[in-house]
Amino acid sequence: MTRVSLLAAMGIGVSAVLAGCSSGPQAGEAAPAFSAMNSEGQNVELASYAGKVTVLDFWATWCGPCRKAMPHVQDLHERYEDNLNVAVVGVHFDTNYRAGNPADYFDEKGYTFDMIPDGSGISELYGISSLPSFVVIDESGTIIHRQRGFGASDVDAFAEIIDAQLAKNAG
Prior knowledge:
- Helix content is 39%, strand content 20%.
- It is α/β, with parallel strands linked by helices.
- It has five helices and seven strands; from the N terminus they run αβββαβαβαββα.
- It has helices at 3-19, 64-80, 102-109, 120-125, 152-170, and strands at residues 35-37, 43-45, 53-59, 86-92, 114-116, 133-137, 143-148.
- Strand 1 (35-37) and strand 2 form a beta hairpin.
- The termini are far apart.
- It has a five-stranded mixed sheet with strand order 5-4-3-6-7. A two-stranded antiparallel ribbon has the order 1-2.
């Protein structure tokens, strides 16, 4: 291999990592089962959310874009807070708490949606390689949407996805 082709191949590889290419399950595929402790010390599993449209928010305390997205994720949670058929779950990407403990961060900011402080195994199962990343799972455990990033306009976009899924099952 020539030096130029080696550098080109390395550049493509680095670009793929930086772009957050996902090797995890995609829309239309079964969501991988998981089991983990939530921030209240209770064991939760994907099966715990069966029958609900579930939004998994993969984030980290050290991730600036995650911190910017969190108020909007809270807005989404509040929109469906009284709907027993919808769950929003924060999954902390790893156990690197260099920017603070995730449970303390939630308390400090007043975030009230479910949170899994050690989601490193879940992040691997779902092929998460960039943050924040979101996975929406339907009531039967099938992934219906994956997305990187989240902002104010995504609250309405996710609400449309959730509402369409709820309507599909109601009708």
